[in-house]
Amino acid sequence: MAMAVANCCFSLLTYTVKFRCCVSSQRYLAKSHHSIASVTCKAVVNHKRRPSSNRDGELKEGVSQKKSSRKSKDERSYILDDDDGIRGKRKAGRSQSAAFKSFGGQRKDKKEPKFDMKEQQVEPQNLKDAAFLDAVVKVYCTHTEPDYSLPWQKQRQYTSTGSAFMIGNGKLLTNAHCVEHYTQVKVKRRGDDTKYVAKVLARGVDCDIALLSVESEEFWGAEPLEFGCLPRLQDAVTVVGYPLGGDTISVTKGVVSRIEVTSYAHGSSDLLGIQIDAAINPGNSGGPAFSDQGECIGVAFQVYRSEEVENIGYVIPTTVVSHFLNDYERNGRYTGFPSLGVLLQKLENPALRACLKVNSNEGVLVRRVEPISDANRVLKEGDVIVSFDDVNVGCEGTVPFRSNERIAFRYLISQRFTGDVAELGIIRAGSFIKVKVVLNPRVNLVPYHVDGGQPSYLIIAGLVFTPLSEPLMEEECEDSIGLKLLAKSRYSLARFKGEQIVIVSQVLANEVNFGYEEMSNQQVLKFNGTQIKNIHHLAHLVDSCKNKYLVFEFEDNYLVVLEREAASASSFHILKDYGIPSERSSDLSEPYVDSLEDNQAAVQDFGNSPISNLEIGFDGLLWA
């Protein structure tokens, strides 16, 4: 499934962006060893980044997407991101890489604005009840992103706008990407000139939903929207929001084109989605989509841009929204959508089914099980899952959906909550048995998003240690990251809870680290002979070390040896010379707690199975 979903749409000031893709500078790029040539992307965004220009209010024309010199059939899509305007994502498909990248650089040209005249605009009075429009508000967000290459500081702040709507009980709903790395969020009602401060109660990165609240009583007054059920194909749909092209509310209309498990670009997850042909533009993100009955059927959040297609937008259905809200109400916080934690293969080939002693035309093969998932306790490689909570699973990995449709098996898992127990019917060596599995959110060895806002770091004698993450890989390039580290981030599974790939991102030159200054983005494996589990473990080992030397072992038997007392004495001068406030992030000041599970974890090789919660490699493989 070469999904290319994205252009997450909230307004930013229009500008032209031209960028060159480095393989390692894009999210998930280790999924392909092919280099990516120069690409020019099309994005019309409403972005207020630096108020140094006197043309901030002037609309500019985006440039069109340009094919690379090595043309491939993969589909590329983009989130229109607050920070740099474009965040590209290429979904994994047949031998394709995936990417999710913020591209910097802002340039403005003198071309006149262009508008797509094919977009069908509808007057507000065509809605069954125009009063519903009063529940849709405009979101103003100020963002401050971490600097992952220099983890002790943050990047310069910028602003963006999006949409949200009232759902009752003093709460608003919008997209998670609209308030990503927020420092201040304000909202403004339709027809009002007052902005009110909003508080972010919860952010669901995987489902791209955020819950806001406004304390001011003056803000409220409009009737909250009512959620409707899942629409049918060809049902009329109306999208409302505050996209670019003006300051007032905008309404566009279309029909429901498709309902299936869809790739969510912001969260890098696969959940149920509604495809529509109504125009969704930057700024519509977080706005509601209505049925003809005036019920809210979902939240607009992303579009697919390609030269081959047009008018493909996506809406988060109310089933996903309800899951998010129920999760928040149950736990007082958002815990996430659960995962089964198995890599599956379709059983379409009759000979394959016969070899596995599967007599019926059903089931999916368990190809690999995540070590830290509960499924690792009851499932084995070679098992065939034929049912999930008594719902039969087809050989294509699909299950019945509504009256005469089928949908991906992952849909059933996404309907459950964290901690729920699911019953699986499996065929093992020809015998049918039932097993029970506790469902929990998937934990990636290399996280797609860094929780808490600020990345962890530890500076020892000028060596900057930090966990490898996808945002960090975005800021680096292929030569800097290295193919071996990229392969690990792509293919390796976490062997125990809390495991991280710890790297030296750079060396701050000083006499004490003489000869090591050229090191960058290399994984540290051991400290004084002890295997490193995560960066907190490394900080604990260094703090408790009494040896004369600090010995760090890296990939390919590369050694760094420092004198302990000299390293400790140099810390003050290094921090002062480079203007760094602390030698470690605040989270590493907490006491380190070791666990038996960590100590019992077996060494795991990588390279056999690509790892993703998306369909990968070819259509026969997918993560549940």
TrEMBL record:
Chain ranges of the Protease Do-like PDZ domain: 446-587
Residue ranges of the region described as Disordered: 47-121
GO molecular function, one term: serine-type endopeptidase activity
UniProt keyword Hydrolase, yes or no: yes
GO biological process: proteolysis
Biased composition annotated in UniProt, kind: Basic and acidic residues: 53-64, 106-121
Domain of life: Eukaryota
Alphabetized UniProt keyword annotations: Hydrolase, Protease, Serine protease
Cross-referenced Pfam families: PDZ_3, Trypsin_2
Family listed: Belongs to the peptidase S1C family.
Name of the protein in question: Protease Do-like 2, chloroplastic
Source species taxonomy: Eukaryota, Viridiplantae, Streptophyta, Embryophyta, Tracheophyta
